[in-house]
């Protein structure tokens, strides 16, 4: 019996050495989780039980469990390297075979799919052409194509006009106004905003502000040119003209903005009418009110239509004021942009993937999914730093990072192995001593047996 006990001890010590050696070998493997050999004693049993004075029959390997405690997060500056800080596993697909891993080595293949270093595709929620996330699990893919341009449909501006200003010397009178965009003494101030046509060409929309005469001190005239010409007629430099009115408190009055029609004294083309229902402080241009233009290659110094279309857009000046302070534009924004090439990828801590383009825009490409299990110890290791679902693990709970009990995602980083080398080296020494001691047990039993054989 002692031979069997010693032999079981040798087997147990060998298993302990194998587990410890595997931990040491994977101390530098990203996403690796160390294992622990768990042993149990053995007693011979009879129908009536072992009895209180039963002698043991050795040891057996009860289980090899994995410890899923958090590894250190090490930053790599590679945008598609991902680390999970907390619970969860990345979900990958190998031609439909689902696996789970903590190793975040990801990149893109030739088709733009996000894959790990074995070519398995990362799973997540895809996004439609508008950047809206679709809640259907699929292979995540990065679109490497250029971003299509978008024509401007909305401009928002906040500015202050100095209430202490006086009408410029060359602006004429209100009854007989004069305006020349090249003469800075025919207007008080000007400001410009870039807007875009359907082909992504940038155009400069310039507003010129002229103070009214007394007693209409709270009124202004705003002249509008696009690329220095009339928005509707590139051959004309006559602007669209609007009256802009403020109340005694320096806030936009009602109505705040009204188009000015041409008169014999003011031969400017009529500014487009403001549609009924337009909020006070907003004026609008229909798609026919602006003809995008470019320089005429035949007649230098003139503009001709460039063949692109414009979208109807609104110009929102609500919040603009007339205070006794210097003129200034406090905020301006518009929603158009030119064509953009893919410049980089960013992933936030909830797993949302953003593509950055050279035109300064970003677009959602999808969202990474994580999986968790009721019993992570029940997962089946399948190699390549991955696990497979088993009956003991239960069904996966799929969700986005930072939802429920799932951890946060850290882009540009990898989770290190959770192996503590100092502990493993001590375990190695202990396993070695156990092996030697069990071998000594067998050696001693052999000597005793030889003594019995030598009896005469």
From TrEMBL:
Sequence ranges assigned to domain Flagellar basal-body/hook protein C-terminal in this UniProt record: 410-455
Keywords from the named record: Bacterial flagellum, Cell projection, Cilium, Flagellum
Keyword Cell membrane attached: no
Domain Flagellar basal body rod protein N-terminal: 4-33
One GO cellular component, as annotated: bacterial-type flagellum hook
UniProt cross-references to InterPro entries, sorted A to Z: Falgellar_hook_FlgE_sf, Flag_bb_rod_N, Flagellar_FlgE/F/G, Flg_bb/hook_C_dom, FlgE/F/G-like, FlgE_D2, LlgE_F_G-like_D1
Ranges of residues in domain Flagellar hook protein FlgE/F/G-like D1: 83-132
GO biological process: bacterial-type flagellum-dependent swarming motility
Domain of life: Bacteria
Pfam families tied to this protein: Flg_bb_rod (PF00460), Flg_bbr_C (PF06429), FlgE_D2 (PF07559), LlgE_F_G_D1 (PF22692)
Ranges of residues in domain Flagellar hook protein FlgE D2: 160-337
Compartments where found: Bacterial flagellum basal body
Annotated PANTHER family: FLAGELLAR HOOK PROTEIN FLGE, FLAGELLAR PROTEIN
Entry similarity comment: Belongs to the flagella basal body rod proteins family.
Functional description taken from the UniProt entry: A flexible structure which links the flagellar filament to the drive apparatus in the basal body.
Annotated protein name in UniProt: Flagellar hook protein FlgE
Organism of origin: Ectopseudomonas alcaliphila
